Amino acid sequence: MVSPAEAHYIIESCFSDFxxxxxxxxxxxxxxxxxxxxxxxxxxxxxxxxxxxxxxxxLSNGSSRIHLPGSSTDIxxxxxxxxxxPSPCKPxxxxxxxNVDLSLCGSGVGGGMLDGGSxxxxxxxxxxxxxxxxxxxxxxxxxxxxxLLQRLILPHAVNYTQLAILPGxxxxxxxxxxxxxxxxxxxxxxxxxxxxxxxxxxxxPCVKSAVMEGGMPDVEGEGxxxxxxxxxxxxxxxxxxxxxxxxAMPPPGVENCPLVxxxxxxxxxxxxxxxxxxxxxxxxxxxxxxxxxxxxxHYISIIDARTEEEVCASSHVCVSIDPCGLVCGxxxxxxxxxxxxGDSFTADSQEEGVAADNLNDEIMGVSSSSSMPLAMLGxxxxxxAMASKNLYSLLNDAGERNVNRTKANxxxxxxxxxxxxxxxxxxxxxxxxx
Amino acid sequence: xxxxxxxxxxxxxIHIRSDGRRPHEIRHMxxxxxxxxxxxxxxxxxxxxxxxxxxxxxxxxxVLCVVRGPCDIGRRSDELPDxxxxxxxxxxxxxxxxxxxxNVNPSTDRRLIEQSHLLQKVLSASILLHLYxxxxxxxxxxxxxxxxxxxxxxxxxxxxxxxxxxxxxxDMVCACSAGRWNAGGSDDIVVDLNRREIQTATxxxxxxxxxxxxxxxxxxxxxxxxxxxxxxxxxxLSGDADAFAQVLEAAMVGCQMVMDVMAAAVRERGMGLxxxxxxxxxxxxxxx
Lengths: 434, 288
Known about the structure:
The complex is a heterodimer of chains A (434) and B (288).
Chain A: H1 4-15, E1 32-35, E2 62-67, E3 74-84, E4 95-101, H2 122-127, H3 132-152, H4 154-157, E5 164-166, E6 170-182, H5 187-201, E7 207-209, E8 239-241, E9 259-270, H6 284-294, E10 296-303, H7 307-312, E11 315-321, E12 327-334, H8 339-344, H9 346-350, H10 356-367, H11 375-409, H12 420-423, E13 432-433
Parallel strand pairs in A: 4-6
Antiparallel strand pairs in A: 1-2, 2-3, 3-6, 5-6, 7-8, 9-10, 9-11, 11-12
Chain B: E1 29-33, E2 52-58, E3 61-72, E4 85-92, H1 110-124, E5 135-145, H2 150-165, E6 174-183, E7 186-191, H3 195-202, E8 215-222, E9 227-231, H4 241-277, E10 283-284
Parallel strand pairs in B: 4-5
Antiparallel strand pairs in B: 1-2, 2-3, 3-5, 6-7, 6-8, 8-9
Family (chain B): Belongs to the RNase PH family.
Protein name (chain B): Exoribonuclease phosphorolytic domain-containing protein
Organism (chain B): Discostella pseudostelligera
């Protein structure tokens, strides 16, 4: 998928802090979040006139779309809510279910991160979407992403106890569906962003219990009167649902929903500085040996890798961080082994006249392990924390601008992360002609 | 004998439907060509190559269509020597149905399979397949929200996506539905039914309706040629051929209205591209 020369180029560019699309190591791409108008759970007759492009997912309680200008990433998220009986082992907590759908983009997504190993043979199969093995890979990728998101984000996404309306009887169940239309690297990041924005946008109607203490029932809810006091088992209509959308609230605790930042670790040999001796003849073999021993493996971490960079990375660390800066989860994914790195460095060593095979074995022996030094982990988490702080501040700015504009124009605003410094030179390739 | 109108009646006494439309009015329709920008072939993600796309919403029904092709078929055994293979698949998202979310497996749901086949037949009637022998054009339709009329919206979206991809067509295929409801002795023909009206007309809503005089007819036509490509009637007609002709007529008028909206969208897109070519484009970071 990526040739050794290209891999070498990508790794060198990351080491020199100027990546192939011009970003620095710790810069995110300019993700755009379209905060949508939110509809209630029942469809209402559409009276929207004038907006030329359709806005929200109207039949869901909350939705969001994460989009990267240009043609790389496009993710939809929808949140639907309904009232159910809670699960017997957790009677006082609400339920959040998550489902990720990758069927539109085939098994090409996450090629760098998720299915490490089976790269070349699947190119043929990818073109034909109906083969069972490509669908199986798709399902594996889907389930891997779903379970990672469930472990890293969902335990902290909302306040579960406040989702329960009548503890033991009725709780909210939020069903989150993420549809990935396209993804160009860092699918976990983008999915977590979509999830957070979708939850942020969800408006749950205000639901109160219809039965007060003392046995006197409250006024009828859905046209049902005469409801007697309720430890009753047969009372179905003992909830009052407030249909006014102005009283609808986002799910409690959603401001603390964490985001996932994926840090990719690239590794390369840094060749030693050229020695001052100019003769290669007599002591050539011994000096070359010394040079090999002083070649060390250097690791560098980048944030928000593109697909090409992901494929060259030796491992990925997904860190889930909430808005206060606390780390909610860390997950390490092995990389694709960095075989390209080994090949690309034989060219260097051949200048010194060493037999390629020996050196190759040596390099391959070291680089086939897709791990990273332990000392790096602290650095990785720190850079992830910094990057997430940037992300959160961008989202908050976007959110404020959203609020201001809604008050001003009374139309649906779309929000972009147009943070001027640093993204300007990127954007010339990402414009869309409208 | 006068009966009071119920909320579930399709037409009230002043001939206004439940969502405020007149009987011969189609829903508010908006088309967006190029919703997913097309990628060049040299990108790192071959399966997400998208030659053209369109997002069509008719009322609350929202459908996204992505076209890939013409491209190479992986297996030689699937090639046709004289024309292109058309691969159509239709799928719904779990959040598309109003009310509860439900997971629909696109390979086993019969309704979806049937509608994919119908869509394939409709598009084969219009695409000039003989221009691309031994290659494949694949059309994927994703229903984002379903408020009735998803087959019609899918046909419209597929047509627009094919035009966005630049694949040559004989004519634009436009689809619209029409129905007839017999209430209190007078026949009312309505155009572009939404979900509640369909349920009342076909009696699937578990209530009244479904009497022998109701007709629900989705129709796809090529308006500029005046030919009908698809018409699907599953209602029982009580031996009244005139009624069918009337409903068909109304549906064709509805298709003409849909065609106007689609043509305007295509012209707008073309105008934007032309201006960009001349260097006078409006550049925006966000789309949709």
